[in-house]
Specification:
Blueprint lengths: L1 H26 L15 H28 L4 H16 L2 E2 L5 E2 L4 H8 L1 H18 L8 H26 L3 H27 L6 H38 L1 H6 L14
């Protein structure tokens, strides 16, 4: 058992190192696009989304504290989930003015640790990206946290639970959790932008249709790609971090057979 734990920790450290290398390299390139960029939202809406997001962050801190105190050996897997979210959400392409399209990477962590834990990890990712990569902003952090670190992970978690309950097919559940959690993030972003900038003709509905329609062009293929990538990472986790997944009750220990001497 101890050998398996050492193997899983070493594999987790290797993956975190690879992701960290990517972050260092990509951080040196200019950032031309954002989540919702700094100063783009009117002050009233910026404050509103901060107020909405803060309670989830507080509850998420309590959830993370409970996880790390009960099972300290899960800290590396938590770090890996955060690094996965950082890297995927940093792969951005320009979209609607004042925003961008990119994978989110929050579905994996939501399945592993639940949506409240991801509200903290996702918030830290968005904060670091705003400060280090000029990707997002501090005034719009509340809005970005709500869409990517709260709404997306909650959707991913419940989609995973629903598919597992009715089909029991874990990889299919993980694919749809990651893909649909990604898409819902951009549905919420479209709602946020439409509320802040209703169309002169048609109001909120027309504005939402415009934002969501533009996002869909890039985000639907990105969501499918994220779902497939998340399944590949899950396969890797099953091979190298099986003890941690057993603790999280996401896989069952295979029964050991006693060989006769």
């Amino acid at each position: 058992m101890s050998r398996n734990i050492f193997k899983s920790k070493r594999a987790s450290l290797i993956l975190i190192g690879v992701l960290s290398f990517y972050i260092i390299v990509s951080a040196s390139s200019p950032a031309y696009a954002m989540h919702i960029m700094e100063g783009y939202l009117p002050p009233s809406w910026a404050v509103f989304w901060w107020v909405v997001a803060l309670p989830f962050f507080v509850l998420g801190l309590r959830s993370l504290t409970r996880i790390t105190q009960t099972n300290p050996e899960l800290k590396l897997l938590l770090a890996l989930s955060g690094a996965f979210t950082f890297v995927l959400s940093a792969l951005k392409m320009p979209s609607v003015t004042g925003s961008c399209a990119h994978p989110t990477g929050t579905g994996l962590g939501a399945v592993l640790f639940g949506p409240l834990a991801m509200s903290v990890l996702g918030s830290l990712v968005l904060l670091f990206q705003a400060l280090l990569l000029a990707h997002g902003g501090l005034t719009t952090l509340g809005a970005n946290v709500f869409s990517m670190a709260i709404a997306g992970p909650f959707a991913a978690y419940w989609i995973y639970q629903l598919i597992m309950r009715f089909s029991g097919k874990q990889k299919i559940a993980i694919f749809f959790a990651a893909a649909l959690g990604d898409l819902l993030t951009y549905v919420i972003t479209s709602v946020q932008l439409a509320l802040a900038f209703p169309a002169p003709v048609g109001g909120f509905i027309a504005s939402f249709a415009k934002f969501a329609g533009i996002f869909a062009i890039t985000q639907i293929p990105l969501a499918i790609s994220e779902g497939l990538l998340t399944v590949l990472v899950w396969n890797w986790l099953q091979s190298y971090t099986a003890p941690e997944l057993e603790i999280l009750k996401l896989i069952k220990r295979e029964p050991q057979t006693n060989e006769s001497i």
